[in-house]
UniProtKB/TrEMBL annotation, chain A:
It comes from the Bacteria. This is NADH-quinone oxidoreductase subunit I. NDH-1 shuttles electrons from NADH, via FMN and iron-sulfur (Fe-S) centers, to quinones in the respiratory chain. The immediate electron acceptor for the enzyme in this species is believed to be ubiquinone. Couples the redox reaction to proton translocation (for every two electrons transferred, four hydrogen ions are translocated across the cytoplasmic membrane), and thus conserves the redox energy in a proton gradient. [4Fe-4S] cluster 1 binds at C51, C54, C57, C110. Pfam families: Fer4. [4Fe-4S] cluster 2 binds at C61, C100, C103, C106.
From TrEMBL, chain B:
It is a multi-pass membrane protein. This is NADH-quinone oxidoreductase subunit H. InterPro entries: NADH_UbQ_OxRdtase_su1/FPO. HAMAP family: NDH1_NuoH. Its EC number is 7.1.1.-. It is found in: Cell membrane; Membrane. The keyword NAD applies. It is an enzyme of class 7 (translocase). The gene is nuoH.
């Protein structure tokens, strides 16, 4: 293994000396902001305009740390003579971050894209009760939600975009054929008029 | 009158060096150790790269309660830190920094004085270990005693070799007699002296007496506040003294290129380099086991020291 006695000892000294000349790996966190990876799980933001009070998030939460109160309102019929509709109105939406384990199930399960991850993580409190973020605070976190990271160059096209593109292409094709038929039809009546 | 003033000035200078140099070594250790481990070390105290960290530590230690355990031997317990610290101050007086009497007090039997007094420092740890009335402290104290027994001998042998080479035991005399070819000649002796000195200071990798994973902090387990700080200070003062002594005995003290009026600078530079090596060794090597510690002293260092003495004697006879 070691041809010269003391070879290993010298090697150890070399390792520490080399490490000393390299840049240290310490991040000076409070002085320098950390470089967080994309999709960092800091805090959960609520886009309450999208919330329909379906309660899926509260029911799926393993920690039961989401509190939702709501009431129903009746909406007058859209067209005269129609039926009155009822609508859920959100009264309270709160997440207790002292219980939350940042599993993200609520965000995964939300069918209406009302919950989002935000990378903000500096919301420590001296009183544990302050960690229950109410609706307005959760709405404020929404402003810190970053745009989703771009897809990989070779990634499959997102389904909704693919669907939207297909619809748009179909519509365009239909309009084109309609336009061609229309010009064909338009020329005939013009002749008739004349 | 001027004689008294001269003595006072010298003593004040030695005291200032004694208070400043260990702190410089300690701060260097903080920083060097951190960077060798890929860290930054203290960054806040004092503003610029944590230069005042040890001052802050000192303030913290001074504020802490000074506890003496109920079962402890009060007097001895309280005296131990002073016993372990003061010998290094005394040794520092006798170490020559530059030529032409740039020394606290030139002592004819300087080498004897220095080695004898350095041995006293270790007694502080033994006193602390015995007086603490704590089994971990006692274990640490006994390990210290065993280490002192084992490592004092190679240290004396190596120092004796230099004294033989120079034909004097006065420290300034030894440096005066130094020639560059002494370095290869006394190389083995120098290594033995430095290693044994490290062991006597209980510096890693020879820190079995304070092995924190086994016996908490050895003899210092029961100490708090300022007395604990004095023990730590003694360790760093010991590093300064050991490095300065190695410089004086084996590296030629103030000798060096362009040493005309900057001889003292050469002594300081060599001492600082050795102190860096002490820190470097601490970072690099794991702690030796107690039996390995004893084995290294009795089967490696002492034979090497004896061989060095034989070599010195032969060369001395040949050249005279």
């Amino acid at each position: 293994m070691s041809p010269v006695p003391g070879h290993g000892l010298a090697k150890g000294l070399a390792v520490t000396l080399r490490t000393m000349t390299r840049r240290s790996v310490t991040h000076q966190y409070p002085d320098a902001a950390p470089q967080l990876p994309p999709r960092s799980r800091g805090v959960i933001g609520l886009f309450e305009e999208n919330c329909t009070v379906c309660m899926l998030c509260a029911r799926e939460c393993p920690d039961w740390c989401i509190y939702i109160d709501s009431h129903k309102e009746t909406v007058p019929p859209a067209a005269p003579g129609g039926r009155e509709r009822s609508r859920n109105v959100l009264d309270r939406f709160a997440i207790d971050f002292s219980l939350c384990m940042y599993c993200g199930i609520c965000i995964e399960v939300c069918p209406f894209d009302a919950l989002f991850w935000s990378p903000e993580f500096e919301y420590a409190e001296t009183d544990i009760r302050e960690l229950t973020h109410e609706r307005d605070k959760l709405r404020e976190w929404m402003w810190t939600v970053p745009t989703p990271p771009a897809l990989d160059p070779g990634a499959e096209e997102p389904k909704e975009i693919a669907a939207a593109r297909k619809t748009a292409e179909k519509l365009a094709a239909a309009q084109e054929t309609a336009a061609q038929e229309g010009t064909a039809q338009e020329t005939e009546p013009r002749e008739g008029d004349a | 009158m001027s004689g008294t003033l001269d003595v006072v000035l010298r003593l004040v200078a030695v005291l200032v060096a004694f208070l400043v140099l260990p702190l410089v070594v300690g701060q260097t250790e903080h920083k060097v150790m951190a960077h060798m481990q890929g860290r930054l070390g203290p960054m806040y105290a004092g503003g610029f790269h944590g230069w005042a960290q040890l001052v802050a530590d000192g303030v913290k230690f001074a504020q802490k309660e000074d506890v003496v355990p109920a079962g402890a031997d009060r007097r001895v317990f309280q005296l131990a830190p002073a016993v372990s610290l003061l010998p290094y101050l005394l040794v520092l007086i006798a170490i020559p920094v530059g030529p032409n009497g740039l020394v606290g007090q030139a002592i004819d039997a300087g080498l004897f004085f220095v080695l004898a007094v350095m041995g006293v420092g270790v007694l502080g740890s033994i006193m602390a270990g015995w007086a603490s009335a704590n089994k971990f402290s006692l274990l640490g104290g006994l390990r210290t005693a065993a280490q002192l027994m084992a490592y004092e001998l190679p240290m004396l042998l190596a120092a004796g070799s230099v004294a033989m080479a120079a034909g004097t035991i006065s420290l300034p005399g030894i440096v005066q007699a130094f020639h560059w070819w002494w370095i290869p000649w006394q190389l083995i002796g120098g290594l033995v002296f430095f290693t044994a000195g490290l062991a006597e200071l209980q510096r890693p990798p020879f820190d079995m007496p304070v092995a924190d994973s086994e016996i908490i902090f050895g003899a210092y387990t029961e100490y708090t506040g300022l007395r604990f700080a004095l023990f730590l200070l003694a360790e760093y003062a010991g590093i300064v003294v050991l490095c300065a002594l190695t410089t004086v005995l084996f590296l030629g003290g103030w000798h060096g290129p362009l040493s005309g009026s900057f001889g003292w600078l050469w002594t300081l530079v060599k001492t600082a380099l050795l102190a860096f090596v002490v820190i470097w060794l601490r970072v690099t090597y794991p702690r030796l086991r107690e039996d390995q510690l004893q084995k290294l002293a009795w089967t490696v260092l002492i034979p090497l020291g004896l061989a060095q003495i034989a070599l010195t004697g032969i060369v001395k006879v040949v050249i005279s």
